[in-house]
Structures are given as structure tokens and as C-alpha cells.
Amino acid sequence: MDAKIGKFFDSVSTFFTGADQIPWCDRDIVAGCEREVAEAEKGSSDEFKSECIMRLSWALVHSRRPEDVQRGIAMLEASLSGAKSPLQMREQLYLLAVGYYRSGDYSRSRELVEQCLSIAPDWRQAQTLQKTIEDKITKDGIIGIGIAAAAVGVLAGGLAAAFARKN
Questions:
Q1: How far apart are CA 9 and CA 101, in angstroms?
Q2: Bridge partners of 25?
Q3: How far apart are CA 34 and CA 41, in angstroms?
Q4: Burial class, 152, CB count within 10 angstroms (exposed 0-12 / middle 13-18 / buried 19+)
Q5: What number is the average pLDDT over the span 140-166?
Q6: Distance CA 33, CA 54 (A)
Q7: How does pLDDT run across 92-131, given as a tens digit for each residue?
Q8: Which structural domain range is residue 143 located in?
Q9: pTM for this predicted structure
Q10: What the protein does (predicted)?
């Protein structure tokens, strides 16, 4: 019983804090990936360069800094047309979906994760992201409805007070 109560309070807490299961990335990890890409540019194989760029893209879209996330999105958008395999396409679509989720563009994120799932329907990481996006959209809708209801209540209260003063 205590476990159920704890789980309930955790879910309520998560609802109000907006926490999700997508990991964050620190600035020093981004810097390390940037150094790795710079080293790879000095004569490594194209495959190794591509792997380094994917790691940097991952770090950027998982960063807490909005400018990093935007840079990661731009890198992934530019490299999307060069995806050689369905696995590469799946990875890039997923990271783009994370980037758009982090930047607050939930509808674009949802589109991308759906494309990703069309390539790999059983991929649990993408399924989890899809649920996270849907939960965020639902939560934002509920909060929006609550704000609208509160505004209507304040307006109705003000009108009732105004009519009461007239009479």
C-alpha cells in the first residue's frame, strides 16, 4: 500500500515539475564531443567522422543550453538527407525528435518520432519518447484549460461584483 501511495505522489510530482525520462548532457561532455569531431576532421575515415558527429549531435540535443539544442537540430537536419541506412535514419530522426521536444516544438517532435517508429515500430526508446511527448501535450492542455477556467471565474466574479454594486 505504501508503494502505491509513493508511486501516486511521484506521478503527481512529475506532473507538476514537468520531469521526463530523457537524459540531460553537461557542457563538458559537449566540449569533449566537439574536440573529438575536430580531431576526426584531421584525416580519420568518413565512418569515424560520422560517428563523432552523431555523438556530438546526441550531446547537443540533450544539452540544457537552448543554443546547443538548436545547433544539434541544425546539424541533424543537414545530415538527414545523407543517411545511408534505415538504422542511421532512425537514429537521426530520434535525435531530431528529442531536439524539437527540448526546444518546445512538441508537434514537430511527435511527427519525427512517428517517422522513427515507422522504421522501427518496436524500438522502446522511441516509444518512450512518444509517450513523453503525448504526456507533455496533455499536461499543457490541462494547464491551459485550468488557466482559461480561472480567467473565466475571475471575469464572472468581477461581473457579479459590478452588478451587486449597481443594485
A1: 25
A2: 63
A3: 11
A4: exposed
A5: 66
A6: 9
A7: 999 999 999 999 999 999 999 999 999 999 999 999 999 9
A8: 18-166
A9: 0.72
A10: Component of the peroxisomal and mitochondrial division machineries. Plays a role in promoting the fission of mitochondria and peroxisomes.
